[in-house]
Structure formats: C-alpha cells, structure tokens
Amino acid sequence: MPVPAVELRRLTKLYREGDTERAVFRDVDATIEPGQIAVVIGRSGSGKSTLLNLISGIDLPTSGAVLVHGADITALGERDRTLFRRERIGFVFQFFNLIPVLTVEENLLLPLELTGRDDAAGRARARGLLARVGLADRAGSFPDRLSGGEQQRLAVARALVHDPVLVLADEPTGNLDAATAEQVFAELLAEARGRGLAALIATHNPDLARRMDRVVTLREGRVAPV
Ligand code: ADP
Ligand code: MG
User: Fold this and answer.
1) How far is CA 53 from CA 61, 121, 202, 210, 218, in A?
2) pTM surpassing 0.90?
C-alpha cells in the first residue's frame, strides 16, 4: 500500500463557547490516496474550512493527527509547520487572497521566493504555468485589473507553482458565475491530474462534486459513510 496523501486519525476539533464546548468534528478517520481528487461537501458551517485549515496546518486540532504523505504535521512546531506548508501544500482560497501591491507575475513567484526556488528554471516554469492559465499577457498587471475568473486562475497557478504534493481549495469557485467557475475548475483539475497530485476541494456545487474521484461529506461532526 502506498503512503496516503492525507490521513486523518481520530481528528477532533472543539470550540469553546462560554462554559460549553462544541465539536466541529469528533474522531474523524479518513484517507485520501495519492493522485486522488476528492471533494468535501457539507452545508455552511459543517466544518469544510476548518478541515482544510487543519490539513494545511494553518490550524491545529483539539486532538488527533493529520499526516501528509506520512508526515505528522500536527506534531510539528509552528515554524516547521509553516515551512512544511510552504513547500508541500498549495492552497486556493475562495476570495483569491492575491496581494494587491504585487503584479500578476510577482504574485505567482511569491511561493518560489518563500522557498528559495525563484531561480531561472523556477521562473521559466512559472511563465509556462501562467500561459496555461491564459494569463501570459497579463504578467505586469495588478490583480485589481483582472476579472474574478482571471484572479482565481492566477490563484490556482500560485497554488501549483512550487510543485506541492497536495492541493487544497476552499470553495474556489464559490464567488464566480457558473461559466467562469467551470473554467477555473477545469484548469485546476487538468493541472492536478497532469501532475498526479492529490487534491481536496471544498464545494457547494453538486455538479462539480460528481466529477471527482471521491466525495467526503461532512454531517453533524462526522464524515458521512459513502
Ligand atoms: P464551513 O466552511 O463548512 O462553512 P467552518 O469550518 O467555517 O464551516 O465552520 C465550522 C463551524 O465551526 C461553524 O459552526 C463555525 O461557526 C465554527 N467556527 C469556525 N471557526 C471558529 C472559531 N475561530 N471560533 C469558534 N467557532 C468557530
Ligand atoms: Mg468555509
């Protein structure tokens, strides 16, 4: 058996509310295999963002563990967790999270700079990626000059430019019209498939969910059985 891309072991996340504790999820066990593209669906407030933030190490669980390609990221200190995330994980946010004072190209190169890989080869790969998402002629523009779909295509490219082992996307098309959402989704999917990457994508959209390898449904603090 290959090492899973993601393994959740009895993952529990509680939030304190006054004197009581409320569980977002409790004792969740789940795995995503290498190359598998999974969606996480669930109503608003069901814990999709919390789950993605735990898998990326942005947030820590109350108990349980998250392993990414066999590495227990929940056992790492904050600094090592941040380094792990920068090197191994790509994240696409619902509201793009582009840096407004940086150009398209500078936004794209940021993950390479943060990991010391903004050499000539890295920059050439970044230009190739920018062309594949249809933004080659916008390299010098600032993000606020781009349409919503273009901004998200840039965010997708930025999540992939440093060759992560895992891509996480939190409702990446939730803020786009249907046609634009489809285009962004198709690009994300094509890049992930082409690289054999594992991905976990939170979405509300059942049509998108049907095209994935695997559906993880969050319901009442559990992963619903398939
Ligand atoms: P989703 O992304 O599926 O809409 P979230 O992961 O954002 O759901 O939220 C799951 C639950 O956790 C919600 O009930 C939300 O109110 C709660 N929650 C999220 N973050 C916090 C926090 N920092 N403090 C307290 N409760 C939180
Ligand atoms: Mg959310």
Assistant:
1) 10, 31, 11, 23, 15
2) yes
